[in-house]
Amino acid sequence: MPKAKLESQKKAPKTKAKVAEVEVKVPGPLEELEQKHERKNVLMQGNEAVAYGALDAGCNFFAGYPITPSTEIAEILARELPKRGGTFIQMEDEIASICAIAGASLAGAKALTATSGPGFSLMQEGIGFAKITETPCVVVNVQRAGPSTGMPTSPSQGDIMQARWGSHGDSPAIVLYPDSVKESYELTIRAINLSEKYRTCVVLLLDEVIGHMRESVLLPDLRKTRVISRIKPNVPPHWYKHYDKDQKYLSPLASYGEGYRFHVTSLTHDALGFPTNKAAEAAEMMARLRRKITYNIRDLVQIESHQMEDAKIAIFAAGITARSAKAAVAIARSEGIKLGLLRPLTIWPFPDEAVRKMLQDVEAVIVPELNQGQFIREIKRLTRDKSEGNVVGLTKVNGQMLTPNDILRKVKEVM
Amino acid sequence: MKNYEIRLSGSGGQGLILASIILAGAAVIDKRHVTQTQSYGPESRGGSSRADVIISDREIYFPEAMNFNCLLALTQEACDKYLFDLREKGILIVDTTHVKNIALAADNTYELPFTDIAIERLGSAISTNILALGFLVRITKVVSEKSLEISLKQNVKPAFVDLNLKALQIGYDLADQYTGGNQK
Prior knowledge:
The complex is a heterodimer of chains A (415) and B (184). Chain A is an alpha/beta fold and 415 residues long. In chain A, 39% of the residues lie in helices and 17% in strands.
């Protein structure tokens, strides 16, 4: 049986949550898994997993505008948040939703919203606001097919580049992408953790199929799961700087209502949060936004290497397409074809190092994706000494999934 | 057992997705790996609807059924569309209330007017899905009937549990009658 190995790019700081992820990843009869973890399996939907992941990470504020295929997230949180002392607000639209969660976060809440493509487009402005004001929040985008309202109940991976570049002004991005119901739970917790740690808006991308799919899930032990909350300032209020550059790019964050007075503006600002046009201050702010990501690549990037040890041909795929790819790998291996899969759990920042290594190790890379070629541009960007011809795309945009056979056919074409 | 793939197909409003959730829930109680996916249009009634359940002893990679071990078709359109993806020696169960032509004779075909039976014995077509599910489970034995009943109680509103348990039982009985009680 293929043993899936979950690894961070190089050696990321080992958190307890990560260890738990590796353990539970071992496939086998459910009974064995249950005994090993002394936990019960449940049938759970991807959207449900996101909602419960959010609650378990301490999310206590949701503002949103329900939209297929993400509606269940709002539905469950509308029911569960008030029970736990949290707040659920259905806003008039997605622009208001993103603004509401940014505001709630500034008042100390762990805030999240969920949407799909049309709403995600409307939220871009607010996402940029959260990024420039370094306000922690999480946006879940359960992708649907097609531009505009497209096909609400069909899968697509069309928002990969939008999640990176959707917001104007050259802002940084952290985007996570699960491939199963269980991982949707884990990555929701991780998204909230990262948003709190790096004080930014983190995006969680889901495929429609993952959001709506139900699977038998053995959730990780909450006691072993690390939940991160923002660092609070330990200085008296009059010394507090909302954007403190001395704190290694992860500065403490005060909340409104705690006695700290600070100014928040979406204009380029100085350390105290007041607007500035000075070149030096602007450069400092932009550098801080960038370094939060680039100095912490190893903490942010997570990849899964599936049967890559001796692979001659590799597949690079994320989300539901990676599930098709895993099935394709199993079939190919049974036919003696040395096929492997590299799967990013964090798609932005892009796992450059792992992809470069993959390009060195294998003869060809196949990039299947449910769009007209978004990931493949990133892979081609990293082909230095190799010809781009070794990177082959495979796309599908008709609202259906790529099947294992689709991928296998492409593998045999390039062999 | 390797993957056992089941497709429940028909039109929106027939309760196929609920039936698939109950079936998948039963598989979890049986401690099997399971995925349940669905495909439907934006409308809540009408339009084609299908739900796939894959049950396995190992981790399931691709969650969509491709070569079904069992196909339940409640409409002519669904039967025409999916019949050719039925595996060799696969089990075909059709509702003859709506399915009048079967394009290809499958090895194991079960034909019954499930909708008519539901109307006649339960007073409405609303429980056709559960009735057919009971039939399917007794024929395929893909999950234990005990787990199926627990799962049904977990997934159906309390007020409708009795009606649905009755529908399930009718489904079981129909299967026994159909096979003369000799189903292995």
